[in-house]
Design brief:
Strand content: over 45%
Number of helices: 0
Structural class: mainly beta
Distance between the termini: 40 Å
Largest sheet: 7 strands, mixed
Helix content: under 10%
Mean pLDDT: 96
């Protein structure tokens, strides 16, 4: 059974950095677009960053220049490097995967909490 497992969340001070990892198993996600979403308390889940199978990336305006998404297909793993964190980045971060011919994400991880203290 295919699954995504996030790790790397935690508590960090404003201005600090964290690196999230999303380990995929059960199938290869090489042909999939991979993404990171986040959901803050009382708010909707929003897209943070996406990387296609070809390595093209796209970011939410709020994280451009601070976050970097990358993937290692040999390890079936996606990363989110987060720098210059601020309190507005506090959320549960989710990894997701979708087939690139579709818009909907088929696979989701359980989420990892990121808390930024100001």
């Amino acid at each position: 059974q295919a699954q995504l497992v996030e790790s790397g969340g935690g508590l960090v001070q404003a201005g600090g950095s964290l690196r999230l990892s999303c380990a995929a198993s059960g199938r290869t996600f090489r042909p999939y677009a991979m993404a990171w979403f986040r959901q803050a308390p009382g708010k909707q889940r929003t897209l943070v960053a996406v990387i296609t199978s070809g390595g093209s990336t796209n970011y939410a305006d709020s994280v451009k220049g601070r976050f970097t998404i990358s993937r290692d297909n040999a390890k079936n793993t996606v990363y989110l490097q987060m720098n210059s964190l601020n309190a507005e980045d506090t959320a549960v971060y989710y990894c997701a995967a979708r087939q690139e011919i579709y818009d909907n994400y088929d696979y989701w991880g359980q989420g990892t909490q990121v808390t930024v203290s100001s």
